[in-house]
Structure formats: structure tokens, C-alpha cells
């Protein structure tokens, strides 16, 4: 193990000597003025394109991450590890800071026992494709370009969560670089506090993960479905949905999605991980309870194709489904989004739908929890929302000029949901105006999480506006 120097006393803020990293990384250290800088500095959300990191270090090994931290940590710069770059607030591309980009570490290896070793820079479509070749699957999200690192560290809500748990629940080990440049493994028996914190404690806190080990499940065909209900039925559909899925087998996952407008629209999309014939009777039960006939799409697909379908990726081949550079830019989005996490009981459906009235362009996505998510105690991992009925994401695409109005609208829905009883929040939908965000994200786990952060990063090397140390 290398004995890298520790953080300089007094927090000196002289410029780093980028020549040290240039000698190690060569062209993979991208500085302002370099040809790749205009693209490499960008995150997923276009609203934060004005942020200009001091450097992007495309690191290909734990050793290179160690070197990055050793060179930079004494200089007062913000440091962020970037897996997929999907931070809702652009925290993975800190202005005038260092981005430790992990995309060079994106390998997926499946061992004979089904354990998967996954580089922290892998995107979800790469993870799902690599697992599919071995006949395996991992619960996770639907957006194909999201990084496995950020998803896992925040918990990992996804379409197989009720059947197989959160992504972080499947994490058997993580290889990390700590703030003082030590390379360590975090497992239940080795660095157990760090292992606990990495499962739901949020990206950007405590350490830089370079590789995960996951316990995967055997892949099988999945039934995916979309039920678009007629105008005026949102209240009855939401009320029925809240009673329907908790009583269903855990192989069922379903999202109730309400679109804002003068008459809010509603659809239910989801996935059934049981025997293919089992989905039909369950869907019929929901439709009968809702009292409204939807336009339906139901398909049985292989696991990889099902995940592509859920992500809106309808292309024929894995290669085409990969993110591609178009005009020098990765396809991205411009949006504001916030979240809430429900308690164990249903919300007043009419009141929820009323929150969406006359909010054109705003979507409320309620994603079912329970099942395997609830098998663990709230303090078993840093992710605390084990008894929650569902998570809620409030999302609005917008331009920079429209962002203040869109933000006000999504915040109003967020606060309205809190008044109805949904007071938690999901750290992967990070929100800079969320009241009491530390407790909303981490609940009663916050004090322990702060202690772990202090233990592994006493000097605040991994500081950012919503780091655990600031909660």
C-alpha cells in the first residue's frame, strides 16, 4: 500500500500541481483549454452547464484515484467522484473543483457463483448487458445512462426492488479509496461501519468506490406493462393502486404516474417477475378496482429487453442502446426534480391529484416499495425507508429561463405531499431546497452516518453542499 501524504494542516489553498497527475494520467487528465474539456466537463443536467471544473481526472484504477486525492486534497478544492454524472443538482461536476471520473472502470465480470464484480463507472445498460450474458440480473433503475456507483450508494430504487431488494441490499463488498488515499475493502467483516454507510448513505460521502461486488439473481423472463387510463380517472386509479400492489405478491412492481394539467392524467407502468401467466389476473384486479378501462400494453420479454423497455429504450441491439456521442455531446436533459418518500399508509388520493391540477409539464411518479425492501430493518443499512409504501419523484423538464417557475411548481407538490404525510425523501433525487434534508434522507440513521463520515473523512475532503457532515 502506498503511503500517500495526508491533508495539509490549516487547509492551504494553493493551486494543485497538475503536472504530477499529467505525468500519471497523460491525456486522461483534462484541463481547461484541452480539446476534450468542453465535453468532459458536462454532467447530465443541462441546467448546470455553467459549472466549470478545474480538472477532470479520468482514472482507470484505484491507484490513480489514490494519486488524485493525494495531489489535490490539501488545496481546498471540492472533489467529486463521477460515475454516470446524473446528480440532479450537478454535484458531480463541482465548479472550480476536481472531477474524479470513473468511466474507465466499467468492467462487468460474473463469477461462477453468480457474484458480479462491477466497476464503479459502469452505466446501468452496461451492467444489465454484462449480467444478461451470464444469465443473471440485479435490481436497479431504468435510465440506461445512470451510473451504478451513484445508484447503489443512494440505495437503488428500481423495478425489481419488491422482488429482490434495493441495489445496495445486493452489495456484498466495495473496494474504495478513503479521503487519506488508503485503498480498502468494505465488507460486513472488514470496515463494517463503512460498509453500512455505503449502502444508502449517498454518493459523495465517506470514500470513492472503485469496484462493487453484488449478489445477483438468476434471470428469467419478465412481464412488462403500461396501462394508460382515461381522463378524469386519476383519483380512482391512485386510490386503487395504493391498495392493490401491497396486497400483491412481491414479484409485482408498479409505478403510478400522474401528469399535471387541468384534468390530471394517470397511467400505471410496471413489471411482473413471476410466472408469465400471473400478471394478467393481477392487472384485471387493478382495473376492476379503479373502475376505468385503460389502453393496455403487456409484453413478456427477456430480462435485458425488459429493462430496456422500462427505460424507454426500444432499439434492437445492445450496442444501439448504449449512450452515443451526438455532435460531441452525450444525449442529456434539462430538468428540475425533487422527491418525497411515503410512510406506511396510503395518502388521500383526491388530495394528491389536486396537487397536480393546473401543473402542466409536471409529472408525479409514485414507485412501489415493500416486499423485499421491507425485509431489512430501517437501521440495517444507511437507507432508512424500509416501511415506506412508495417513493415519489416530482419531475419537470425545463429550460434555464423556465427553471425558477418549474422549481416553484415541483416544490409546491413536494411540500403538499409532506402535508399529507409523505415526509421522507430519497437522496438520489437530491434537492437543495428540501427542508431538514438530513433527516428526510436518512431518518434515525443520520447520527450514525455522521459519525462514520467523521471517522473516514475527518477533514471534509469530500465536502459538498449536502454532504452528510453538513446535515
From TrEMBL:
PROSITE patterns: FAD_PCMH (PS51387), OX2_COVAL_FAD (PS00862). Keywords: FAD, Flavoprotein, Oxidoreductase. Signal peptide: none annotated. Its cofactor is FAD. Residues 49-219 form the FAD-binding PCMH-type domain. One of its GO terms (molecular function) is FAD binding. It comes from the Bacteria. InterPro entries: BBE, FAD-bd_PCMH, FAD-bd_PCMH-like_sf, FAD-bd_PCMH_sub1, FAD-bd_PCMH_sub2, FAD-linked_Oxidoreductase, Oxid_FAD_bind_N, Oxy_OxRdtase_FAD_BS. Belongs to the oxygen-dependent FAD-linked oxidoreductase family. This is FAD-binding oxidoreductase. The lineage of its organism: Bacteria, Bacillati, Actinomycetota, Actinomycetes, Kitasatosporales.
Amino acid at each position: 500500500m502506498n503511503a500517500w501524504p495526508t491533508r495539509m494542516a490549516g487547509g492551504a489553498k494553493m493551486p494543485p500541481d497538475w503536472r504530477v497527475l499529467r505525468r500519471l494520467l497523460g491525456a486522461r487528465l483534462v484541463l481547461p483549454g484541452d480539446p476534450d474539456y468542453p465535453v468532459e466537463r458536462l454532467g447530465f443536467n443541462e441546467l448546470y452547464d455553467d459549472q466549470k471544473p478545474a480538472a477532470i481526472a479520468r482514472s482507470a484504477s484505484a491507484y490513480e484515484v489514490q494519486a488524485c486525492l493525494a495531489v489535490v486534497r490539501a488545496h481546498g478544492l471540492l472533489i467529486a467522484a463521477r460515475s454516470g454524472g446524473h446528480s440532479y443538482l450537478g454535484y458531480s461536476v463541482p465548479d472550480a473543483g476536481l472531477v474524479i471520473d470513473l468511466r474507465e472502470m466499467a468492467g462487468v465480470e460474473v463469477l461462477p457463483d453468480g457474484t458480479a464484480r462491477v466497476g464503479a463507472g459502469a452505466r446501468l445498460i452496461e451492467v444489465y448487458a454484462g449480467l444478461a450474458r451470464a444469465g443473471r440480473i440485479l435490481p436497479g433503475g431504468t435510465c440506461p445512462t445512470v451510473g451504478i456507483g451513484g445508484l447503489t450508494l443512494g440505495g437503488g430504487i428500481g423495478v425489481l426492488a419488491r422482488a429482490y431488494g434495493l441495489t445496495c441490499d445486493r452489495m456484498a463488498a466495495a473496494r474504495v479509496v478513503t479521503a487519506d488515499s488508503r485503498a480498502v475493502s468494505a465488507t460486513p467483516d472488514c470496515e463494517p461501519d463503512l460498509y453500512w454507510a455505503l449502502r444508502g448513505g449517498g454518493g459523495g460521502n465517506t470514500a470513492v468506490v472503485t469496484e462493487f461486488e453484488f449478489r445477483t439473481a438468476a434471470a428469467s423472463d419478465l412481464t412488462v406493462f403500461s396501462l394508460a387510463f382515461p381522463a378524469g380517472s386519476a383519483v380512482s386509479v391512485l386510490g386503487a393502486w395504493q391498495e392493490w400492489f401491497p396486497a400483491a405478491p412481491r414479484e409485482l412492481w408498479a409505478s403510478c404516474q400522474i401528469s399535471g394539467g387541468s384534468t390530471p392524467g394517470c397511467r400505471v407502468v410496471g413489471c411482473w417477475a413471476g410466472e408469465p401467466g400471473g400478471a394478467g389476473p393481477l392487472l384485471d384486479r387493478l382495473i376492476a378496482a379503479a373502475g376505468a378501462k385503460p389502453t393496455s400494453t403487456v409484453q413478456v420479454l427477456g430480462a435485458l429487453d425488459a429493462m430496456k423497455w422500462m427505460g424507454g429504450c426500444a432499439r434492437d441491439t445492445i450496442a444501439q442502446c448504449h449512450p452515443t456521442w451526438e455532435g460531441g455531446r452525450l444525449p442529456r436533459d434539462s430538468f428540475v426534480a425533487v422527491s418525497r418518500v411515503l410512510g406506511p399508509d396510503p395518502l388521500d388520493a383526491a388530495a394528491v391529484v389536486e396537487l397536480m391540477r393546473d401543473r402542466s409539464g409536471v409529472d408525479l411518479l409514485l414507485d412501489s416499495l415493500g416486499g423485499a425492501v421491507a425485509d431489512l430493518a430501517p437501521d440495517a443499512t444507511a437507507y432508512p425507508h424500509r416501511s415506506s409504501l412508495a417513493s415519489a419523484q416530482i419531475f419537470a423538464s425545463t429550460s434555464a429561463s423556465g427553471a425558477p417557475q418549474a422549481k416553484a411548481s415541483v416544490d409546491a407538490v413536494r411540500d403538499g405531499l409532506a402535508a399529507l404525510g409523505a415526509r421522507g425523501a430519497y437522496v438520489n433525487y437530491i434537492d437543495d431546497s428540501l427542508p431538514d434534508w438530513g433527516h428526510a434522507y436518512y431518518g434515525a440513521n443520520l447520527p450514525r452516518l455522521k459519525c462514520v463520515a467523521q471517522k473516514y473523512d475527518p477533514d471534509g475532503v469530500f465536502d459538498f453542499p449536502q454532504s452528510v457532515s453538513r446535515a
